[in-house]
């Protein structure tokens, strides 16, 4: 299969490059290509600005992939509350542009979305057919992208996931949650983590492998893909420290105390119902996934 992977140098993109090794994959990155981009694993990317309609069509038409996987996103959640223009450009309008180009060239599209499309009022795991109701401008921009894709082209997979962390980090956000917790603990700083937001942290390695299985099915539609189980962010932080053998000063706080500009859903656990219906849900428990991640981080030192 020929696959165009947009955002190949991100934490999910790098794990997808490994998970899709048996396929013919062309990765793209935004802006200048660095030595780190081109010298890691199989990544020999091309530059692509997903907000440039001419570049998008030319890249897809030049490679003629069977499927385009879109990992590009603008996810500075709190910044977006005061200015949603870039989020709408990347998360919504660029997603539509990709869908239209894929329709023209008869390529499937897989687009990565988020648990933040839900408001958390259900207080039970969300399935794919539950009605979205985002609380933040970020969640709204991601839902807009989903809707524009669904309106533009039937050959789509929309993958909602949650709390991503991977070995490549999250450069656009200044590091993923696990890395941030480890850094703060090593610096000896007091750590305060919200204990009233429940989700399922997801290892990008597991997500990438599940996406690789999904695209073989041609069963288009909306999918939830997260690791199993659920925890608050505080509980997640405590497990990180336990596995890493650290004992920092960590205490739970409320979302009101944290006082972030953007509202987060108090409960955004996703049920992998559509994967289970296909019989291909192989996502392990988040604690097991985190244990492997921490062991890999230790091995990197």
TrEMBL record:
Pathway in which this enzyme or protein is active: Carbohydrate biosynthesis; dTDP-L-rhamnose biosynthesis
One CC-aspect GO term: cytosol
Enzyme class: oxidoreductase
Domain RmlD-like substrate binding, first and last residues per copy: 1-295
GO molecular function per UniProt: dTDP-4-dehydrorhamnose reductase activity
Matching SUPFAM superfamilies: NAD(P)-binding Rossmann-fold domains (SSF51735)
Its EC number(s): 1.1.1.133
Entry's Gene Ontology BP terms: dTDP-rhamnose biosynthetic process
A Pfam family the protein falls into: RmlD_sub_bind
Residue runs in coiled coils: none
Family that this chain belongs to: Belongs to the dTDP-4-dehydrorhamnose reductase family.
Role, per record: Catalyzes the reduction of dTDP-6-deoxy-L-lyxo-4-hexulose to yield dTDP-L-rhamnose.
Protein name listed in UniProt: dTDP-4-dehydrorhamnose reductase
Top-level taxonomy: Bacteria, Bacillati, Chloroflexota, Candidatus Thermofontia, Candidatus Thermofonsia Clade 3
């Amino acid at each position: 299969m020929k696959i165009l992977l947009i955002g190949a140098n991100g934490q999910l993109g790098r794990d997808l490059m490994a998970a899709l090794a048996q396929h013919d994959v062309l990765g793209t990155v935004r802006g200048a290509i660095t030595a780190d981009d081109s010298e890691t694993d199989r990544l020999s990317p091309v530059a692509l600005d997903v907000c440039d309609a001419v570049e998008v069509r030319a890249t897809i038409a030049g490679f003629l992939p069977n499927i385009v996987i879109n990992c590009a996103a603008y996810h500075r959640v709190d910044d977006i509350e005061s200015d949603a223009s870039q989020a709408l450009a990347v998360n919504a309008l660029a997603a539509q542009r990709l869908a239209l180009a894929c329709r023209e060239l008869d390529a499937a599209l897989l687009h990565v979305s988020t648990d933040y499309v839900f408001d958390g009022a259900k207080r039970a795991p969300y399935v794919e057919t539950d009605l979205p109701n985002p609380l933040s401008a970020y969640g709204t921009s991601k839902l807009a992208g989903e809707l524009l894709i669904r309106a533009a082209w039937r050959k789509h997979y929309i993958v909602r996931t949650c709390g991503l962390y991977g070995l490549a980090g999250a450069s656009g956000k200044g590091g993923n949650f696990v890395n941030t917790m480890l850094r703060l603990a090593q610096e000896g700083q007091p750590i305060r983590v919200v204990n009233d937001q429940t989700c399922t942290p997801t290892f990008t390695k597991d997500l990438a492998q599940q996406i690789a299985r999904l695209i073989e099915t041609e069963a288009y539609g909306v999918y939830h893909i997260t690791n199993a189980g659920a925890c608050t962010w505080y509980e997640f932080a405590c497990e990180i420290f336990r596995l890493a053998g650290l004992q920092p000063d960590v205490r739970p706080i409320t979302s009101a105390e944290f006082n972030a500009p953007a509202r987060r859903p108090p409960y955004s656990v996703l049920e992998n119902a559509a994967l289970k219906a296909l019989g291909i849900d192989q996502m392990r428990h988040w604690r097991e996934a985190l244990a492997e991640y921490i062991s890999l981080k230790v091995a990197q030192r």
